[in-house]
Amino acid sequence: MNIQENFSLKNHNTFGVDVSAKYFAEVSSLEELIETIKFSKTHSLAILFLGGGSNILFTQDFEGIVIQLHLKGIEEEYLNENEVLVTSKAGENWHEFVLFCLNKNYGGLENLSLIPGNVGTSPMQNIGAYGTEIKDTFVNCKVLNLETLEVEKFDHQKCNFGYRESVFKREGKGKYVILEVTFKLTRKNHVIKTDYGAIKSELQDLGIENPTIQEVSKAVISIRQSKLPNPKVIGNAGSFFKNPSIPTDQFLIVREKHPEMPNYPQGDLVKIPAGWLIEQCGWKGKQIGNVASHELQALVIVNKTGKATGREIYDFSAMIIDSVYQKFGIALEREVNIK
Ligand code: EPU
What we know:
Blueprint: E1 3-8, E2 20-27, H1 30-42, E3 47-50, E4 56-57, E5 62-69, E6 74-78, E7 83-89, H2 94-103, E8 128-129, E9 132-133, E10 138-145, E11 151-155, H3 156-159, E12 176-186, H4 197-205, H5 213-227, E13 235-239, E14 245-247, H6 248-257, E15 264-266, E16 269-271, H7 274-280, E17 287-288, E18 291-293, E19 300-303, H8 310-328, E20 337-338
Parallel strand pairs: 2-5, 3-5, 4-20
Antiparallel strand pairs: 1-2, 6-7, 7-12, 8-9, 10-11, 10-12, 13-19, 14-16, 15-16, 17-18, 18-19
Helix pairs in contact: 4-5
Bound molecules: uridine-diphosphate-2(N-acetylglucosaminyl) butyric acid (EPU).
The site of uridine-diphosphate-2(N-acetylglucosaminyl) butyric acid has 17 residues, from strand 13 and helix 7.
């Protein structure tokens, strides 16, 4: 067990915020993980598990121990000639895992290409993009119960997935750490999902009519690269807010004043793109100090100069929430975890 003290987290969060952790440990096996948790409990240290650091905003130094999971490995089990179970340990990089599956011609994750982060954090917020969420292919995950230190299995139902939500963000918050995730993917007769507008037009531009899963992945990569900033170049955590869903009655009232408002009815609720609301309030591309709303996608907040503090980013997001509420009466909710 190698525990470092006063460790800078600047390279361990995609916002590139310069904060430190009192202690930091990298663990590569379940045994090492359990040993580190026992050590932390003995010393009454608050624990924070970090994957790729792609969905977190640190607003201050962390006074406990940050544990980074380096559990690696991918296993495959053929179910039949059509389907395969693929299990990835938590510490695998998400996009590399997607590429591994595409190389083997396993279908189901191609629309989720290039999402930052690690496999182990993907179920927490049920990552999603371009008409697909991981809940569509998720079978189960193994977790470590932090109280009993026993390994448990969570099936689909127990994960209770929602839009950018799961049991791990609600009742199970802080109680488990995800060790590995199993997906059921197709080996042939892939289900190609190109309904999401941008994919269709991207494939058309490429002159592709009946795309393979590899081509869908290429289209997704190209769309993401064209409007989402690369965290390696400019600090960000993807969408900072969730797209709000409001009751239909409320929507009808707001629409009277804003008839051009894009909307996606879902049962009794209507989903409104937060990026549109933010852009309408004049935030798109706007910079205050070191922080800005991305010029190509208003929903993404960026560490524009690379020198922003977490507090500055948080305050910037509070200003956005405030002005969207003033103009539309709609309360935006942060998607990114605040620490
Ligand atoms: N829009 C604007 N202005 C903007 C941005 C968006 O008007 O600056 C409007 C447009 O009407 C556009 C609509 O919002 O048609 C939707 O925009 P986009 O397709 O970019 O998707 P999104 O709803 O803003 C969501 C996810 C993204 C995911 C994309 C594609 C959330 C919170 N975000 O964004 O996920 O990549 O769909 O599926 O649901 C992430 O979670 O970090 C993330 C990047």
